[in-house]
Write a structure and sequence with these properties.
Elements lengths: L2 H6 L9 E2 L2 E4 L2 E4 H28 L4 H13 L1 E2 L1 H8 L3 H13 L3 E5 L7 E5 L1 H20 L6 H22 L10
Helix pairs in contact: 2-3, 3-5, 3-6, 4-5
GO biological process, one term: response to stress
Protein name: MarR family transcriptional regulator
Pfam family, one: MarR
Amino acid sequence: MSMRQEEFEDDGAGDGEIVGLARRIGSTVVTDDQIDALTAQTIRLIRSADSVRHRLATLDQLGPTEVRAVSRIGQAGQVTPKMLATALEMTTGAVTAILDRLETAGLLRRLPNPADRRSTLIELTAEGKTVSDRMYVEFNQVVASVTKFLDGDNIGTVTEFLEQAADAMYTHASTDRDGNPLS
């Protein structure tokens, strides 16, 4: 245990309370330097995932946003253009252009929406599913390649961290600077 951790071990601070330049999480003290290092590596992970997405786009002769669209449609099965625009954080006009390119490439098809005749449903074709599945498999292989030094408990901890970090980021992205929901 570091001197910094010993210094705060019995101070009675509550979970998450900031103590000096550290934060108590349960019985563990986490320093600002550790949080900074974790933040830097999280940003690095996001950027590296973007690099993999760009690589996949290049190999499949798609743009990075088209890869994101194929991935989102593949995850959902069927989406409306408006749902996809929301997921991609784009305008419906920009998504229409992406859908046109992906339809021309034979990766998706538009179907009538039985719930709203003014709308369409978008789903992947067999070729689009192949592209989507290949993207998932490649991401999965990269992640699997770095798990060889982790046991089940550690994988669970890392998975829980990533889940909580993603939830926190989605929540943060949907609020203004005062914490109010964005409209």
